[in-house]
Amino acid sequence: VQLQASGGGLVQAGGSLRLSCAYSGRMYSAYALGWFRQATGKEREFVASISSSGVTDYADSVKDRFVISIENGKNTVYLQMNSLKPEDTAVYYCAANNPFRRRRDFRHWGQGTQVTVSS
Question: N- or C-end of the chain: fewer Cβ atoms within 10 A?
């Protein structure tokens, strides 16, 4: 599976951004698509995921602020980010768990897109 992320940029604290990730290739009947992020000097961390059956999973740090969704007809997964905080600044990566193995076990990665939140 190939993944292409886009939509990053610079936004003020409290603002919103929507990231997009176009995916292509063979998708198994059970899979998940997700977003991770990596801030400078920190390890990559899980942000959100959505399964082929529509089940969503969020990191506690973004719950109630970020929404992940999938548009199957366009083979695109979105991450709507609201109420952004400076600590959300990171490179965001989309990823695939395809076929689905276990929760948060992502093995296919796209390139990152930079999100910078100014205070």
Answer: C
